[in-house]
Fold:
Amino acid sequence: MPEAPLTPAKRTLGEEGTFAPNAPAPFVELGVTSNFSFLRGASDAVDLVLTAHALGYDALGIADRNTMAGVVRLHGEARTARMRPVIGCRLDLVDAPSLLAYPKTRAGYGRLCRLLSAGKMRTVDGAWQDKGACDITLAMAAEALGGVDDVVLIAVPGERLDPFVADLPRLREALPVSHIAAAHLYRGDDRARINRLSELAKTLGLKLVATNDVHYHTPARRPLQDVMTCIREKVTIFTAGRLLDANAERHLKSPAEMARLFADWPEAIAESRVIADACTFSLDELRYDYPRETVPEGKTADGYLAELTWQGAARRYPDGVPAHVRATVERELALIGKLDIARYFLTIHEIIRFARSRDILCQGRGSAANSAVCYCLEITAVDPAQHDVLFERFISEERKEPPDIDVDFEHERREEVIQHIYDKYGRDRAGLCATVIHYRPRMAVREVGKVMGLSEDVTSALARTVWGSWGSTVDGDNVNEAGLDLDDPHLKRTIALADELIGMPRHLSQHVGGFILTEKPLVETVPIGNGAMADRSFIEWDKDDIDALGIFKVDVLALGMLTCIRKCFELIAVHYDRPLTLASV
Structure:
């Protein structure tokens, strides 16, 4: 089994050929919480998949709380291990019992994402809901998922059964709930509890399904999960009490062990397999589709792009397009047509055209400067008649990589461009990428130290010894430099837990300017939530997730120097009557 890289934020399993597929197992774990259920799950996709494969699983579900943020990671790692990822989420409703929701089809997945987006972008008293919140009511769930049969809904009992039993008929009436989840809690009454759930299921025409409510891949991660709970609830480990699980049983168990635990309820084991086999949806089914309003009615994307390019060439070269530039443009247009990415260029061009109509200075950066088409469309100012451009640095048929055009705008006016994109495409079709904020050494030391009861001066002294913004460990040198004694068992334990926390996701933030724009509703591809900034919304996946799924993004960036240059142009025009542009200086 391959050893994963050390930095948790960037861990992957490597090459697919390393793993042999497992035979179909009688049980599939569907109650998996990853570390993208922030401060709840204590294991990442790599650890979960490695452990599941070693235990004999051929498929593994994921059900993070009110989010799809971690599904791409599990999808990729499971495929590498030659396992089948079963994509779903856990819906924690504000006024009803929780549900495990697993879409059977692409349409069901779209409905689930739309529901999550509605929960994340609610308005409260006319104001946007806070970033990170996701409040879903039973009525909202019924509107999105009621009356259809393409999402498997599994009711999840709480620790106290009486409220669940009282609420279940109402839940069953509003939604096509088909199963009740059963897990061992190891409190001495498991047999009676599961028997009661089994009888309840039969009474209501439902089925029982087994799960272990997994929060980490191995029992050794239970202390870290306790620490995460304390951070989330803002308590110390000494005062947490019943907020913590009573045992370390919420880990992945082998199919054989689960079958043994549910020997008296074999149908619950069998139903997990039935559900997994019925949920055939895969993230591979997500297909990116560029917005179509950039192409006038009656014209094709390739034809309209060629029309705009040659019009731009005529403006760029009023004395005639040089022969070698014409040949370059024709070659680029042919490859763009072959790769079917003309609408990508048209989308960028529309944004550029809006900025120029408002006299907002902008400039494409990076490899796009190697494109004569980008020069003719005024996306870049690098003249192919004066510079040797290499289009293959920008787009290559052999590399099979999507184009990447990063456009800088004046930093004082970029928000106008961003709001234009939202206004033109709508918030259900446009969203910024996410950036995953991970625990870094200083933050990990401070938060774990606080949970473990270390004084503020001790955690501050230790945190000050950590240099740089990233790292994978807090070592003995840091402890010695702070004047602390690593032989102290409590301090040693604190450092070990801080090391485990480093690299774990803390929360989602918005990307600086990476936009995803789609023809069909983006909220049916990935949930969208409110940003911390007013009038900003962003999707739950970061740029690595987007790249893994082959979804293209448009980078709308801010550059202070462009503001300076624009002001210089204005001064030169006023004092010297010289109208300058980026292409002419």
Q: What stands out?
A: The longest strand covers residues 505-517. The domain at 26-285 is CATH 3.20.20.140 (TIM Barrel). The chain is about 40% helix and 15% strand. Residues 1-8 have pLDDT under 50 and may be disordered.
